[in-house]
Amino acid sequence: MENPSFKRDFIDRAIKKVNHSFYFYDLDLLKHQLNNWQKILPDDITLWYACKANPLSAVLKVFRNHGFGIDVASLGELDQAMASGVKPENILATGPAKSKEYLKSMIDNEVGMIILESTSQAKWLNQAAKEAGKKIKALIRVQLEWTEGESVLGGKDITPFGEDESTWRNFNWQELEHLDILGIHVFQWGNILDLPQLKSLWNEMASRCVQLANDMQLPLKLLDLGGGLGIPYEANQKPISFYDVAKELFQLKKKFQLENIYMELGRFAIGPYGHYLTRVIDRKTVRGKELLVLEGGINHMVRPAITKQPFPGELYRQSSAPLSTFQVHGPLCTALDKLGDYQLPNDIAPGDWMIFHQCGAYGFTESMPFFLCHSLPAEVILYNDDLMIPRWPRPSIDWLV
Length: 401
Fold this sequence. Notes:
Elements: H1 8-18, E1 22-26, H2 27-40, E2 45-50, H3 57-65, E3 69-72, H4 75-83, E4 91-93, H5 100-108, E5 113-116, H6 119-132, E6 136-141, H7 165-169, E7 179-185, H8 195-216, E8 222-224, H9 242-255, E9 260-265, H10 267-270, E10 274-286, E11 289-294, H11 303-307, E12 313-315, E13 323-329, E14 338-345, E15 353-356, E16 378-383, E17 386-391
Parallel strand pairs: 1-16, 2-3, 2-9, 3-4, 4-5, 5-6, 6-7, 7-8, 8-9, 11-13
Antiparallel strand pairs: 1-10, 10-11, 10-15, 12-15, 13-14, 16-17
């Protein structure tokens, strides 16, 4: 799906109401997208929403209402999902840092599926299940060895996600009589926009996981491929068609005779439906370079500093002035607070608003909001053609102690 256009009339209202930097989520467009997806997918390919992308309760409820399970990676995300009305059996627990206490809490909360990221977690969960008198559904997470390729989720690098094939092969599965191991989870790549690359990765992952399951005499009832579907951040990039993705998953399932495939969609599902707006505070020329300093920066959206890949951005008001290159910074006292270089109308001035797109995922909750004690951004949603403000800006006096 192309990057959706923003709803200027609703954003105008939000600017007047909030009068501070804010995120704007178009949940009406999100609902339209999810309705289309439901018409495409067969029942034996299961979609989960990875709430680390955006855990706002209003977002979780939209996915819940459209039949998605919720993928949680912490106790906080588990609490948020359950508080948003997600049924425990529709929760998938990922994440490498599962303590004995956290595993026990998931049993107590009747979480539907738990991903085992280590042999230790397998033993701990089995013991907790034994003490609770229950049998718990689980997947093992395997970290495959690759010779090339980099990713925020590892790629060829060694990461804390899962354990390698040899470790799982040598594990004594007879110890896990209180666990129902249904298959394998494998996910090492993120934000991929090339469908042939995804197809190649998925086929290699599936082939090696089928072999691993056979070696361990483990029934592979389902294969969890994680997510990894990307969205375009640059002008020359094209979005992936979900129809093509679904077709590849169906063919993969048939080729390897899998009962079910799981996909955990985060960025791909919510990213295009979020925008971030913030004001220009200052404009200056430094050593021949045009600079803008904004009200919000990496304290509100840190991703550009982490990935060196800016969010698409533009001047919010319409202008016919010629374009110039501007280096855009936030308000923090560090050179890391750079949002990117942008072609902007050269009449941009203090008081103007900038709007950044593709910010529905990995925006506010991925950032560093408390540094320098600036106010937290608001979060505004458009839902059923109504403008709502679930989070207003919060000054530091509200949270400093």
